Amino acid sequence: MIPRLYCPGNIDLGHVLMLPDKAAHHARDVLRLACGDEVTLLNGLGGEYRARLAAVTRRGVEVEVLEFRQREAEATYPVTIAQSLAGGDKMDWVVEKAVELGASAIVPLAASRSVLRLPPERAAKRLEHWRAIAQAACEQCGRNRIPDIAPVSPIDHWLAGMRDKEGLKLMLSPVHATRFSSLPPPAIGTPVTLLIGPEAGLSDTEERLAQSVGFQPVLLGPRVMRTETAALAALAAIHARWGDY
Description:
Elements: E1 4-6, E2 16-18, H1 21-30, E3 38-42, E4 48-57, E5 60-69, E6 79-84, H2 90-100, E7 105-110, H3 120-141, E8 148-149, E9 153-154, H4 155-161, E10 168-172, E11 178-179, E12 192-196, H5 204-212, E13 216-219, H6 227-242
Parallel strand pairs: 1-3, 6-7, 6-12, 7-8, 7-9, 10-12, 10-13, 11-13
Antiparallel strand pairs: 2-5, 3-4, 4-5
Helix pairs in contact: 2-3, 2-6
């Protein structure tokens, strides 16, 4: 398999460009590529570029851009994962796997019962970390558009901004919910937003607020899933039932 490398910015056909430090390190020190080896470049804006290594030195790696290919691997429905902050490395897992499963955007939410609490400085660092995970996941899974990872937002502020947003809004809930299997498929291309609570679930106040701005409680099945599992199961269900698989 030809290695894929994330190279943000303009990529011009026929030009020789210097890879960013991270991509250069991966190509030279991890993959052990040499001059003449081919790679695929993506800048996250769509499509991909066939390129060949022109120089590999300790100072950097140069590549010659040979061809642009308008190849995409995006999902049938643009799905936003609104994930309440989860403890440990669970958010890393959700970001990585949601990108692999085709999520178009991820919104980390600070819910009242979230175990993880992030002051502004830590939140900024984690956001940078999550965006790097999304980039690496796109390299691995063949996507050419980097999903947006939004800054951490208080859930009530985010829900208030969702009142006038169009599309299908689903809130995963273990009780008093419509089974996902009974939902009719929306029109192709309809934006879908999945709201997932933290380990202890959304509070009653948060659930009521979500429903007041158009979120429909949905049950995935008879088993209660962990917060880091729920979004991924819902994404897979959407693809399986509504045509992406």
